[in-house]
Amino acid sequence: MKTKVPKSLLNDIYKTVIQPHIEHCLTVWGFDKVQHLQNRVARIVSGNYDWTILSTDIIKLLNWQTVPERRDYFTSLLMYRCIWQVQHLFRYGGLCPSSGV
Q: What is the mean pLDDT of residues 91-97?
């Protein structure tokens, strides 16, 4: 697959299909497994199997956020929405109050 599919398409597949799925499973799989999976996918997408190069460096070269960066981003987004009541996170009984409490 890595030799027949362009890297840009592999990158798009990761960002649209794989990344949201593994982020959703983070609470079940745990941080270490998700980070390991992201590291493996980064090597496949980049085509870099040189194990002297750190996976985090490859992730940065691909302009991806690491798992902790994504977690912090979504936590910050959740807090922003709750504090400023930008939108309700869940339609029925959401986390954000509907009135200024």
A: 51
- The pTM of the full predicted model, rounded to 2 decimals, is 0.70
List the Cα angle 82/87/88 in 5-degree steps.
75
86 and 97 housed in the same domain: yes
Q: Angle at CA 54, nearest 5°, toward 71 and 23? A: 20
Radius of gyration of the chain from Cα atoms? 17
Average pLDDT, the chain: 81
Same-domain check for residues 88 and 60: no
Calpha distance 6→3 (Å, rounded): 8
Q: Domain range spanning residue 95?
A: 67-101
CA dist 21 and 92 (Å) reads 23
Task: With respect to residue 18, please indicate whether it lies within any of the assigned structural domains.
Answer: yes
Cα angle at 31 between 28 and 32, to 5 degrees? 115
pLDDT tens digits for range 47-79: 999 999 999 999 999 999 988 888 888 888 888
